[in-house]
Amino acid sequence: xxxxxxxxxxxxxxxxxxxxxxxxxxxxxxxxxxxxxxxxxxxxxxxxxxxxxxxxxxxxxxxxxxxxxxxxxxxxxxxxxxxxxxxxxxxxxxxxxxxxxxxxxxxxxxxxxxxxxxxxxxxxxxxxxxxxxxxxxxxxxxxxxxxxxxxxxxxxxxxxxxxxxxxxxxxxxxxxxxxxxxxxxxxxxxxxxxxxxxxxxxxxxxxxxxxxxxxxxx
Length: 218
What we know:
Layout: E1 3-7, H1 12-24, E2 28-32, H2 43-46, E3 56-59, E4 62-65, H3 67-77, H4 91-124, H5 131-151, H6 165-168, H7 171-177, H8 184-187, H9 190-200, H10 203-209
Parallel strand pairs: 1-2
Antiparallel strand pairs: 1-3, 3-4
C-alpha cells in the first residue's frame, strides 16, 4: 500500500510534506480535502486527525498529522534514498539541522504566518486585512531575516553547506511571501536572497509550486 497524503496543494503545511516526499523520490497519492465544505470536520476525517487540520499522512496502518512530524518521519524512513535531509551520519551536522528546524518553527513561522493569513486568507473569508497585525509581524520577521543574513554569510544553507530539512521547511511560506508587497525583506538581504533563489529552484519544490495558488471561496 502506497503513501496517502490528505491535504491541499495551496496549503503551506501540505506542500511542506509534498516537497519532502519529492526530495526523497517517494511516490504518494494526494487526496484533496474540502475545507470550505467542512470535510475536515466530518467524523471520517477526525478519525485521522482529531484536530481537524491538514495534512494527514497514511502509511499502511500508521496515520500521522502535524506537517513537521510527517517530514521528520519521511526523512528518517527513507534516509537511504533521495536527498539526505537529516545528516544522520554526522552527529554535528544532524545537531545543526535540529537547531535550525527549531528556529524555523519557533521564530520564522510565528512571524510569517500572520502575514500570509492577513494578506491571502482574510480576503477569501470576506475580511479586511489587519495592517497593524501585518506590520507587527513584519518587524519580527525582519529580525529573523537579519539573523539569517548573518548566518548565510558563512554557509550556503542554514545548517551548513548542505541543503537540509531546515531549509525545506521554509519553502512554502517564503514562496507566498515573495508574492506580497514586502518581498524586499528578502531581496534587500543579499545572502537571504541567494539562499532563497537556491532552495526555490530545486526540482522538488518546483513540482509543488505550480499548485500553490489561492482561489476565492465559492
